[in-house]
């Protein structure tokens, strides 16, 4: 505890109130944590286009991106929208 000036340590001639640095790497909110990096890299940006189709092509698979369901058909993504499908771009 820091109760008096005698609790200060001198490092390189400069008084320091702490005896050692306390890095908390590994917590999700720290910039260099693995959890934070994984969270930032798995987020994707989805933008709608002005291209609509009435039915999906054959061979589509349902995928979930950022909590929303889309259909991936041979590299093209579609989102259900008002009884048809809109092409979306996933970055």
Q: Note poorly predicted spans.
A: 1-5
Extended strand count: 7
Largest sheet: 5 strands, antiparallel
Q: Based on Cα principal axes, name the global outline.
A: rod-shaped
List keywords for this structure.
mainly beta; 91 residues; rod-shaped; two-stranded antiparallel sheet
Q: Can you tell me about this structure?
A:
This protein is 10% helix and 42% strand. Residues 1-5 have low confidence and may be disordered. With 91 residues, it is mainly beta. It has a 5-stranded antiparallel beta sheet, with no helix packed on it. The two termini are 50 Å apart. The radius of gyration is 26 Å and the shape is rod-shaped.
How would the blueprint of this fold be written?
Blueprint: E1 9-11, E2 14-16, H1 34-42, E3 46-53, E4 61-65, E5 68-73, E6 76-81, E7 84-90
In brief, what are we looking at here?
With 91 residues, the protein is mostly beta strands. It contains 1 helix and 7 strands.
